[in-house]
Amino acid sequence: MAETLEFNDIYQEVKGSMNDGRLRLSRQGIIFKNSKTGKVDNVQAGELTEGIWRRVALGHGLKLLTKNGHVYKYDGFRESEFEKLSDFFKTHYRLELMEKDLCVKGWNWGTVKFGGQLLSFDIGEQPVFEIPLSNVSQCTTGKNEVTLEFHQNDDAEVSLMEVRFYVPPTQEDGIDPVEAFAQNVLSKADVIQATGDAICIFRELQCLTPRGRYDIRIYPTFLHLHGKTFDYKIPYTTVLRLFLLPHKDQRQMFFVISLDPPIKQGQTRYHFLILLFSKDEDISLTLNMNEEEVEKRFEGRLTKNMSGSLYEMVSRVMKALVNRKITVPGNFQGHSGAQCITCSYKASSGLLYPLERGFIYVHKPPVHIRFDEIAFVNFARGTTTTRSFDFEIETKQGTQYTFSSIEREEYGKLFDFVNAKKLNIKNRGLKEKKEGMNPSYDEYADSDEDQHDAYLERMKEEGKIREENANDSSEDSGEETDESFNPGEEEEDVAEEFDSNASASSSSNEGDSAREEKRRKQLKRAKVAKDRKSRKKTVEAKKGKDPNAPKRPMSAYMLWLNASREKIKSDHPGISITDLSKKAGEIWKGMPKEKKEEWDHKAEDARREYEKAMKEYEGGRGEPSKRDKSKKKKKVKAKMDKKSTPSRGSSSSKSSSRQLSESFKSKEFVSSDESSSGENKSKKKRRRSEDSEEEDLASTPSSEGSASGSDE
């Protein structure tokens, strides 16, 4: 017979939710570990009183009852596993695993039995349903009626909110069956009532999550956070872990309380309660209990009068009431000597603490990752600078956490820590992965030397790739990698052959061939640059849009919307633009077909008008621009003709010099398109007008003109 039995994908029912996990049965007892939270339930073999096997929604289930009244339910077994479990229970636990199915008659009349923390509604000898009383949040009574309200389950899509029981009156005097029913429920229910005095009160503590300053009242079964805006009541049964973490500045301390289920405010869930203390704050604390009660309840862990640092007092009281260990950082020390690493997670900067059994990040948002849920870690180069790197963690469920902007000096310490904890490193070489890198920690433990440098090796590989790329490019380009290249200087490079230095370098054939190769590549690059520039000009020319072109016609919907916009605004005062568009779409969608046809006809008419206007536009497009262009050409032509026209004898030297200065223009201003008949006509008219102007100038009386006339 096997000493242990293990089952994967088993579901435990806790507070109305089914938690996935692993179940192990051993000679000492039964251990269940929650895959999501890592919480471990341990049931000792000597505490078991009854074991029941029954058919449930998820296959078959196992129900266990203990001496102190606790009930444990595990679902997800296969029918074939009954014999194996039955034999194991007989051999190791001395228990008979009974088969007992639920009643499915559908009756709503039966008897209620209270057994331990379980309310069972039975018909005959078969149970119909069972209610764990720890799920009850409130119990109210009426005339012959008891109403049970339940804690809301955030993980389930549908939650049971309340159940009502009708309790018939009895003939017995002095016993009210309704009150008796309610008292049985309340004695085991998880009803939070702030009755009596608090054991102690801590005033105005700084809380980072949820943010604010709160008075913390410590009651025997729950913690009460009282703030200016919100109040929270946290049962000690929901506290999963406690952490006490020193701040990097060595002057402050974080006290972190992990909660499952979380406290909630509206739609926000707080899985962690984070308190920040100064190490310099001291307090004297007196518990609101006598010394005998303190000794009996806390067994020396607390005393009636205590004094010390505030964070020590809070953590000490919480540890005694919750009865859980406080997790502190292990032997990790960063580059600066601190037990944490400064980094960023998502948009906020915070501190990452490597612990003995996991990582915790504070404070916004707080993250706790256990080693047993980590698939692998990865050291990645920082995205913005080479002075930092990223630390990536991926869980077995596929969730990825990236802690970025970690200083490069922290790399060696963090890598050594991860390596010592035997975590899989993604960018480690395959050879190292095969050399037994399996985790050495116990999978059912309650959570909380290879010198290979993976990051350095990765940097070396990237450096080799860059060097190879550089060598390839240098081989392709020859000597030109050491010189700058300007596409407009090809002519100067060609002329180098005929200068004095060219003869000295041309003595060797190798130098000539290298220079020829260089010149060819330069010419080729210049051609490519020229083609690219011409393509760019073509694209820019295409982008231009003529403002005189006819506008496209509107659709039927847009025509209707323009006509109906003001009416919609008047019907819905203050409506926004987006809401108006949505409302218009709804109205148009629900409009009858006959009304839509009217707007369709209008849209068709607009389309015809557009096509007509477009034809006219295309027929006469570009005429204004051509006329403007021809005017410019006429001016240029006229000035060039002045230069070629012979000066007359009657014209003065002053007029001829003026004519030469006016007629001079460089080549690029003269257009080559001068053969059109229209331009020739305009050129002749221009010549006649200029000739007449010259004759007028010649006839103007002047001393030089009269002198030349007398000589003739």
UniProtKB/TrEMBL annotation:
Residues 500-509, 646-663, 698-712 have a biased composition (Low complexity). Residues 550-618 form the HMG box domain. SUPFAM superfamilies: HMG-box (SSF47095), PH domain-like (SSF50729). Residues 461-557, 572-712 are annotated as: Disordered. InterPro entries: HMG_box_dom (IPR009071), HMG_box_dom_sf (IPR036910), PH-like_dom_sf (IPR011993), RTT106/SPT16-like_middle_dom (IPR013719), RTT106/SSRP1_HistChap/FACT (IPR050454), SSRP1-like_PH1 (IPR048993), SSRP1/POB3 (IPR000969), SSRP1/POB3_N (IPR035417). Gene3D superfamilies: 2.30.29.150, High mobility group box domain (1.10.30.10), Pleckstrin-homology domain (PH domain)/Phosphotyrosine-binding domain (PTB) (2.30.29.30), Structure-specific recognition protein (SSRP1) (2.30.29.220). Residues 473-499 have a biased composition (Acidic residues). Keywords: Chromosome, DNA damage, DNA repair, DNA replication, DNA-binding, Nucleus, RNA-binding, Transcription, Transcription regulation. Residues 537-549, 580-627 have a biased composition (Basic and acidic residues). It is found in: Nucleus, Nucleolus; Nucleus; Chromosome. GO terms for biological process: DNA repair; DNA replication; regulation of chromatin organization. GO terms for cellular component: FACT complex; nucleolus. Residues 550-618 bind DNA. Residues 520-536, 628-637 have a biased composition (Basic residues). Its main location: nucleus. The keyword Transcription applies. PROSITE patterns: HMG_BOX_2. GO terms for molecular function: DNA binding; histone binding; nucleosome binding; RNA binding. Pfam families: HMG_box, PH1_SSRP1-like, POB3_N, Rttp106-like_middle, SSrecog, SSRP1_C. The keyword RNA-binding applies. Component of the FACT complex, a general chromatin factor that acts to reorganize nucleosomes. The FACT complex is involved in multiple processes that require DNA as a template such as mRNA elongation, DNA replication and DNA repair. During transcription elongation the FACT complex acts as a histone chaperone that both destabilizes and restores nucleosomal structure. Belongs to the SSRP1 family. This is FACT complex subunit SSRP1. The lineage of its organism: Eukaryota, Metazoa, Chordata, Craniata, Vertebrata. The gene is Ssrp1.
